[in-house]
Amino acid sequence: MAAATGVGSLPGSDIDQALALVVEAFPDFPHLPELPARGAGSDMIGRTSAALVDLHVDLQPAGWRLVSRAGLDERRATERLEQDLDALMAFADLDRPFKVQLVGPWTLAANLELPRGGKVLVDRGALRDLADSLAETVREHLAAVRRRLPHASIRLQLDEPQLAAVVGGSIPSESGLSRLPVPERTDVVASLGAVIAAADGPVIVHSCAAGVPLGIIAEAGAAAISYDVAVARLDLDELGERVERGLQLWPGVVPSLGPGVPPPVREVLAPLRKLGSDLGLDAERLADLVTLTPACGLAGASPGWARTAMRLVTQAAHALSETQAAQR
Description:
Blueprint: E1 3-4, H1 15-25, H2 44-51, E2 56-60, E3 63-67, H3 72-87, E4 97-103, H4 105-111, H5 124-148, E5 153-159, H6 163-168, H7 185-198, E6 203-207, H8 214-219, E7 224-228, H9 236-244, E8 248-254, H10 265-278, H11 283-289, E9 291-294, H12 303-326
Parallel strand pairs: 1-9, 4-5, 5-6, 6-7, 7-8, 8-9
Antiparallel strand pairs: 2-3
């Protein structure tokens, strides 16, 4: 049976309203929404960076930077995350899958600044420390969620929008005149794998990039890959092989920004059904394989489109499941 959930972010600044909206829109698989409109520290990088165990950050003109001790920016971000987690207690009886999101190690490394400048990505020692810290952060964060939702089955999504750029050598240097070196593939898989393993449960890796590094994500131990069907270029042979080995697909089937007139459900499902046909999957197998989402986070959408997008995703999942039932 096809499922439906969100990617992460929503417009607005009220966590109680956003969480209630998500639980209503995705009753079978809600998630903890992120609200970047609240400002620095509610952004994807700042939210995860501030939660890092035994590492500290502050906000500079160039972005978030590693520092020796916690400052005001970090404290604000951690307090806001704690408030978001406490908002979950209103749903303590929830007894279904529930998803939370953190940024993955390679997108963090491509964004975080070293104390003396330059990206963490260029410093192997700092990379190792970051991956170790993030793995412990995953353990502590999931434990904090489970304390508040003791009956739910918690899933972790690692956001890696820049993983493709890291392995493709397209992250710009500080000057912008060159590109940062490409790390060894074995190091990329190992660091991502260590963070995934720390979750001690299914992990979804999300990327809205065109060249999603499917092999790296699968080899690192991800249970599912989340991607934008309108953008991603996936090799069908490799995808079919990974699916046969158990990889689940989380296709983003509804645009994150409103296209004007909402597309009909059949149009939403058209690229997914084509993919199923290309992979030789019948409707039953396809429905069991996928969890549908918007294409990416909805923070940039209007409140009206955010609601419409979530409704369309849920309707599409129901339609796909009905097709599955009809063919049994």
